[in-house]
Specification:
Elements lengths: L1 H153 L18 H7 L1
Amino acid sequence: MNYWIIVSAALALACIALIIINRQQRVELLQRREQELDTDELRRQTSRIRSDNARRRREIAALHRALEAEQDHSDALECALEELRTRISDAEQRAEQADARRIGLEKEIAAGRMRAGLLEQQLRQAMEEQNAQEQLYQDIIRERDETIVRLQDAQPKRKPRKKPEILGQQITLGDILKGA
């Protein structure tokens, strides 16, 4: 019986050892499952992070391309703006030149008007002088004709002589203008 007791005790010790081993293995199995779950979770997170990373890289690449396109567009706008500035500067210079020419022409027109006014005044004065001169010459001619008639009436009648040509002695308007 002792044998059975020893065997029972050995079996009991083996059962206890197996129970302890079983519990340790269960604990290890639970730890492994937890580790596998953690590993799976980490893999899922890593996969999600990688897909997020890939998506963000694509977004970054798209943003980079958009940025380059905007920079190109900005450069084109800057060139266009510089060209517009140049054209505006040229237009301002042309406007200033045109304004200067306009002012010069206005001065020339004003001077021409002044000269025309002076010439008109001189012409009026000359015409007044000419009219006065013509009147004076007509008065002189009339007085001379009257004097000639009086002298002829006062002289005894003689044979008529040839009258001297009065036309050669008359002063014409052209002579007056040439002399003035």
